[in-house]
Amino acid sequence: MLVGVSPTLRRAAVRAATAAALAVPAALIGRAAWGIPASMGASRRRLRPLVTGSPHFSEGKFCNTVATTTMQPGSTGDFVREARKGRRAGVPSSPVPLVTPQLPTEAAELAVTWFGHASALLEVDGHRVLVDPVWGERVSPSAVVGPKRLHPVPGPLEELPQVDAVLISHDHYDHLDLPTVRRLVREQTAPFVVPLGIGEHLRGWGVPEDRVVELDWDGTHRVGGLTLVCAEARHFSGRGLSRDDTLWSSWVVAGPRHRVFFGGDTGYHPAFAAIGAQHGPFDLTLLPVGAYSPQWPAIHMDPEEAVRAHGDLGGDVFLPIHWATFNLAFHPWAEPIDRLLAAAARSEVSVVVPRPGERLDLSTSTPTTTDWWTAVS
Questions:
Q1: How far apart are CA 1 and CA 246, in angstroms?
Q2: At a CB cut-off of 8 Å and minimum separation 6, what does 376 contact?
Q3: What is the third-level CATH fold of 88-361?
């Protein structure tokens, strides 16, 4: 109450207290905004001249081959209700069990290490391919605001062996992470093989020109004995207010003896069957099973659709991705795996569900899966 203090001093004290109170949120705002322009990547103005020649670029943006909406018409009210009640459902109730990655000196004939979400290290016919690496703490342009990890990174990025290629599926923050890219520039020498437009993000972040390979759908790039094919996906792109300025994709990793399909992030689409007919069958598929919702059914597959896509592709072993690490939807944390295993059993599909950091060597046999997620959820 400042009893006994003169009006002049009292006014000064109030002004000082007000300034101090305002300084705290201002500092927080400043910290939250730090680095955002760089993280958002290349602007539409810079991207436009580089992508307009693609047959998949029309009326100022990249387009899916089938009609696709990011949000169901009239679903805004449902979204708000789900957001109010469902956010906590996507968080595990206890720590997610991790495995310290055990990576051999020589790459195997067919192996995979899952690091969480869509990040994985593929070993195909003696080569290594790193897909959608995200080692950052948040999938956001801000270091302090946005979806935060639900479990730590299983192992340091710097301890990865040298890889032959880094594949990126699209430019959303949970698949393309600026801090991770900058660390890979220092620690690795492999090229970044990416869909059209993403190369401009990378160049702006310091990736040397000779380490950037941009492909349109059906484009290919050879790395050692591997053929990397940029394949169609059904999704969208954007790191800010502007959308669909860069292309999104899935990837075929084809060696002389084994083939792997990496789905990245996609809704179900008819092209899965065409990809399977042209590039399959696949010894291993990595397909997204999480972050689905009735409000956005066209851009994220649910687990049942993922099983169908695996069949379309001619897949043998199915490894689910795009779940467990970030809370990006309103379904319960472990629901994607429970639904996936039920659907896979009906279709007699072989599924492996590694813990984050766990390496599975599929060269000689299919590893069995132990239920580690039920106790966590």
A1: 58
A2: 92, 93, 94, 95, 96, 97, 333, 334
A3: Metallo-beta-lactamase; Chain A (3.60.15)
Both tokens of 124, joined, read: 């195909």
- Domain coordinates of the chain in residue numbers? 7-33, 88-361
pTM score: 0.90
Q: What is the DSSP letter of 209?
A: G
**Per-residue pLDDT of the chain in tens (377 residues, 90 and over written 9):** 333 434 444 454 445 444 444 454 554 555 556 579 999 999 999 999 999 999 999 999 999 999 999 987 766 656 555 555 656 789 999 999 999 999 999 999 999 999 999 999 999 999 999 999 999 999 999 989 999 999 999 999 999 999 999 999 999 999 999 999 999 999 999 999 999 999 999 999 999 999 999 999 999 999 999 999 999 999 999 999 899 999 999 999 999 999 999 999 999 999 999 999 999 999 999 999 999 999 999 999 999 999 999 999 999 999 999 999 999 999 999 999 999 999 999 999 999 999 999 999 999 887 888 999 999 98
